[in-house]
Each structure stands twice: as C-alpha cells, then as structure tokens.
Task: inverse folding
C-alpha cells in the first residue's frame, strides 16, 4: 500500500452562494466518502477542510509575508485527504468518489523524503 | 506482409549481414517481453526499459554487419541484464536495489506467456500519461524503437522524445501506475486509449526520404504488428478486432495511395494496386468482430473502409451506405474530424451545398487543419465558386507539413 494525497480544488464561489441546507449536504457527502474509502479497500490516514482562500497568508522564499494564496486561480485548494491505496488506479477509484462538485480533485503520491524524489 | 516467425526462419543465416527490416521484426518480437520480464525482476520499469533500449542499440550496431545471432531473444536478454547490473552499480539512486535482487530471469529465450506484453502496454497507455508520451513510450518499450527512430518517424526533435519517455517512466514508477490489463467496467475505456495510440502510430508514419534509411522504422508496420498482438491477445474484445481490420484495409491500399512518392486520392486510386489478400483478411477479422455483437467506433471505421474496398473504381462507391455508417459512428465519436469525413459522404448523397453547410459549421474547430480547407475547397468547386475554392486550396497548402500532400494540393491549385 502507498500513500496518496487527494487535493480538492474548487471554485470558492460554489460554496459562497450556497444555502445552509446545501452546506449540510456537502458535510453529509464527505461523511459518506470517508466510509466509502474503506469499503473500496483503502484507508483514510488524514485530511482536513481549509478555511476560505481570503484567510490565506503567503510567505515567499525571501521571507516576505503577503495577503492571499500562493497561486491565484479560479479554483483554489479547499481541502485534502490522505489515503492508503494499492496503486494509482486504486487511488483514482477512491478519488472519483471524493465530493468536489465545484471543481475536481488531484491525486498525488506522498513520498518518503529520505531520498530526493526529483 | 509475412508475419510468420521471422526470427526462427532467419536465425539460421547467422553470419550474413541483417537487413533493417529483419532487425525491426526480430527486435519488436523480443523487446516488450524482455522489458516485462526485467521489470518484474528489477521492480523498476524505468531501469528495465533503459537497459533493454541500450541492448537494442548494441544489437543494431552488431547485427547489421554480423547478422542476427541464432537466439536473438537470449542475446538481448543477456545484454539487457548486463546493462541493468551495470547501472545498479554505477547509479546511486539504484544502488540499494542491487542487494535486494533475487536471481535474474533466465537468459534463455523468453518463451513464457506472451500476455506479459499486454499489461505493459496498458501501463504505457495509462490515461495519467499524456498522449504524446503514451505513443513515445509504447514505441520504445513495446516495439523496441530507439529514441532516434521515434524522433525521425514522428518528426519530433530527439531531445523532446527522450524527455517524454523519461517523464512517463518516472511517472509510472513514482505514482504507482499498475502494469496490468484492467478488468470490468474500466476495460473498455482503457482499451480505447490503447487502440487510439496504435491508430495514431499508424497515421504518424512518416518516411523521410533521403535520410539514413538504415535508422528508419516504418511506424505503419509497427502499428499493424501491435494491432495484431492486441487483437490476438484479447480475442473477445470486438473493438481490438475492429482496429486490426481498419489498419489492414488501410495497409491494403498503401500501394495505390502513394505512387512514386506522390499521394493519390481514394477516388483516383488504381484498384488493381490494392492488396486483395490483406483486404480479404480485413473482411474476415471484421466479420469475426461483428459476431461478438459489441459494436464500437473502430468497427464502424473499419466498416466504412470495407465499403471503399468493395469498389472497382471511385464512381462505384455506395455512398448512402458510407453515410449511414458515419451517422452510426457519430453516436460513438462526434469529433470534428469524423464530422468532416462524414461531410464528404454527405456531398455525394445530398449534394455539395448540404455538405458545405456542415463543413462551415466545423470551421471554428478545424480552421487550423489543412484537410478542412481542402474539403471546403472541393465543395466550393462543385458549386462553381472557383475563386473561393482556389483561396481555400491555398490555405490548405500553407497549413500542410507533409511534402507529398503539399504536391497534391499544388497540382490542384495550378489546375
């Protein structure tokens, strides 16, 4: 089994304009997803929902601190999961079930940094 | 083309210089099997493929002058194993692997299950790899082409090809792309990617005249070979049979399509130059596919090619049948190029104005595609709008990269 990050990229406007019952449905969908991961034979080892992009603070290489996200784009990183999966196909099967109606998800392997993966 | 075990038939002449065609055949029979076996042994497709590629370069140098050894598979396996061990010792990122290796696979000819090539092929054509890289990696790992041969055959710079292959292999290793034939609901979509790569391989075949002929490979041969391997290994997959039939129909017309380096349009082709044996084989494969009762786009493409193959001359074509098949094809593939080809059939059935309307509707998607302009020119000419037709032919000419196609268009403009 290997570890993969499922990065959720969505348009924040999708949530900004959402009525309260819409948000409740999103929470439900994520609760369902966390159960589905083990049903698919994977396991969830971490994850989190991120506060809106407007709360982001960026520190550039030189130490300069600025307001806003590191990369400006329509779709922003709004949350992530860390899952254990057999291989990329398995991780993608899991990623397909991850709720992201306002955008999509990116699947990336998590590596052991003791050797340089680049 | 005779595909019956060329390695065995030719290996007797061990000491005669080998023709490049023979080298190509021997190498593509062995390449993927050895890459698959070494990947299993080394646990790294990257390392395995690199070592086999190096062995192929050595083989090309030696066999061309000294002839193919009696057991080319064993020769390549041994050379590749040697290269792999060499790399393991030399390169830091591989060194810890050396201690963990089990016994190497037999250097004897790999007579094991031929299927091991297919999981490798599905890995090379994984949707997580870009289409350009899928093609390049398939050509190297499955067909055994060198980077230089791929570059010449696809008209891409060698450094670009090399980079695509390295990136794709690293992605397979780093992200854990499994080398296996997908099962269940995934199978059809993944197979379609494989078949698309093979089809692109066929149409990418550019033979560069006057170059180093010894270094060239005809991708059309490789594509046809690979289509056979896939169709043979997956006999229940109707679409795999469909693509094989399609390529056989195209191959059958090759002798009439290019005469003395000049392209001849389908309507004008001399039917006596068509290879009837290949057409008969294509028809048989397509019939087998139809019996599986799982229609799809490759079978429909092949059925359209079959209609053309039944003709005695261009005027003999059953255009209503062709158009009907294109209409069915649209259910699977609504790409602008398919719609453009359908418009050509539509012109024959409903007249040039109906076809021109359809062609114009595709302008936004295909304005950069030379054949869109060429087809539009043809419709305009049939409508008597000669000046506009001429302007479109000139546009097509400007967008054409291929010399033979350029000369065909030039002849039309001069007329």
Result:
């Amino acid at each position: 089994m290997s570890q993969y990050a499922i990065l959720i990229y969505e348009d924040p406007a999708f949530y900004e304009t959402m009525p309260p019952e819409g948000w409740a449905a999103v929470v439900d969908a994520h609760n369902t997803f966390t159960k589905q991961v083990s049903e698919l034979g994977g396991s969830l080892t971490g994850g989190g929902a991120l506060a809106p992009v407007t709360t982001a603070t960026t520190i550039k290489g030189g130490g300069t601190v600025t307001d806003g996200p590191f990369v400006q784009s329509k779709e922003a990183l709004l949350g992530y999961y860390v899952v254990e999966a057999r291989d990329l196909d398995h991780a993608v099967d899991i990623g397909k079930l991850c709720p992201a109606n306002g955008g999509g998800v990116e699947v990336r392997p998590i590596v052991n940094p003791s050797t340089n993966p680049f | 083309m005779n595909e019956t075990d060329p390695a065995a038939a030719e290996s007797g002449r061990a000491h005669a210089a080998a023709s490049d065609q023979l080298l190509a055949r021997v190498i593509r029979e062995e390449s993927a099997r050895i890459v698959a076996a070494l990947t299993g042994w080394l646990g790294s497709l990257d390392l395995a493929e690199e070592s086999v590629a190096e062995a192929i370069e050595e083989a090309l140098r030696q066999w061309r002058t000294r002839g193919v050894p009696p057991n080319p598979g064993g020769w390549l396996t041994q050379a590749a194993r040697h290269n792999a061990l060499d790399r393991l010792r030399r390169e830091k990122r591989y060194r810890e692997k050396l201690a963990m290796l089990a016994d190497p696979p037999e250097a004897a000819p790999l007579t094991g299950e031929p299927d091991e090539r297919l999981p490798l092929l599905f890995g090379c054509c994984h949707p997580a790899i870009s289409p350009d890289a899928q093609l390049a990696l398939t050509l190297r790992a499955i067909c055994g082409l060198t980077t230089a041969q791929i570059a010449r055959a696809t008209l891409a710079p060698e450094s670009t090809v090399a980079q695509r292959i390295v990136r794709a292999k690293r992605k397979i290793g780093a992200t854990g792309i499994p080398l296996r034939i997908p099962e269940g609901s995934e199978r059809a979509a993944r197979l379609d990617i494989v078949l698309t790569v093979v089809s692109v391989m066929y149409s990418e075949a550019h033979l560069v005249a006057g170059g180093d002929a010894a270094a060239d490979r005809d991708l059309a041969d490789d594509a046809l070979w690979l289509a056979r391997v896939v169709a043979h290994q997956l006999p229940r997959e109707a679409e795999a049979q469909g693509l094989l039939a399609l390529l056989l129909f195209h191959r059958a017309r090759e002798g009439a399509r290019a005469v003395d380096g000049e392209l001849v349009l389908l309507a004008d082709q001399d039917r006596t130059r068509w290879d009837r044996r290949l057409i008969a084989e294509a028809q048989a494969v397509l019939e087998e596919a139809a019996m599986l009762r799982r229609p799809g786009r490759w079978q429909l493409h092949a059925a359209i090619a079959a209609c053309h193959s039944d003709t005695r001359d261009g005027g003999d074509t059953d255009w209503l049948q062709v158009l009907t098949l294109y209409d069915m094809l649209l259910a699977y593939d609504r790409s602008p190029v398919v719609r453009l080809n359908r418009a050509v059939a539509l012109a024959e059935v409903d007249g040039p104005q109906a076809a021109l309307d359809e062609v114009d509707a595709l302008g936004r998607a295909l304005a950069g595609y030379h054949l869109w302009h060429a087809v539009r020119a043809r419709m305009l000419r049939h409508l008597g709008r000669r000046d506009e037709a001429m302007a479109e032919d000139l546009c097509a000419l400007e967008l054409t990269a291929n010399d033979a196609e350029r000369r065909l268009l030039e002849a039309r403009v001069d007329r």
Notes: Chain B touches chain A at residues 93, 126, 128, 174-178, 182, 186 (CB under 8 Å). Residues 8-14, 107-112 of chain B have pLDDT under 50 and may be disordered. Residues 167 and 406 of chain B are 35 Å apart (CA to CA).
